[in-house]
Amino acid sequence: MNKAQLERKIKQDGIRRVNYFIRKGNDVVFNRPIKEVFFDPLGHDKPFDPDAKPINVFYIPQDEYKKLMQIFKDHEIPEYLYTDLTWAYLNMCFASTNALFRDKFHRDLNAKRKELYKLFDLLEEILSKKKILRGFTLETRDILGERKFGPLKSKKFSGHIAARFIEDVINKFKEAKMYEMLQREREEIYEKYGFTDSTSGKKNHEKQSQQYYCNVLFDYLRQELFRPAYNAYSNVLSDPKKFEGIFKKMSRKYSRNKRYLFIGKLMIFSGLIQDKELIDSEIIDQIEKKLLPKLQKEKKHIAEVEERNRQSTDGSIEILNVITLF
Q: Per the confidence metrics, is the pTM higher than 0.90?
């Protein structure tokens, strides 16, 4: 999209985001689930008020809330998980409405930093006598009032005296703390890791958020949906058949493909996945692909534990994290 389209979409996303903070008509009031622990993976994109305190109350349009509840029912999600998963849904909405803005912000920031570092390099060459300063141009605007400025004006300076004056200014700036801070930042961060848009190697912030919520929701669902089987597993030595029976029943009801489909449907409804025309098999494939690195890592860990147990000489065995079975 061009610049005008991008600005328009960012504005629309901002309006959608703010609408969750303002009650309108018969909106459904949703209270953020307060966790005992500091870390709240489902609330990764929770918004804060101007005093940097988390916002606790949100307003979901009635029609949107009904459709969300229908998604839960269609996938046989237990009602006691509705609050947590509604919270996850809202955070995916916040992530989707903030993605383009974050992309633009980091692109602009990196462009300005690159320009600044080019200036630093040029100034260093001038001060180290690799280049001779013969003149410079200043661009200014007259201040007409608060946030009101006149047209851009350019003034070119040339000659030995003007050049020497600027060289003296450059030398003074090099002694300033700001110059030292920016140079240290450049050396310790950007020269080592390159310019970053904070997307952890993903194409953009939307892709990064998709990856994050896929992992978080997958872990949450296999922990909460399979809790009955997990509880039976803790008593497996006393009643192994009970565990096997519950495990088979839960695995049929909440197979991995069914969980992939639920995660995908929730993401599409939140706007975090834009393509609303995907068929179920395509949604499953997309989510499975995003989870592949995580699942491969777990598979490797299981194989390593099993191998260590086979080679154990003292009869001791390492217990697998049961959650990885589901």
A: no
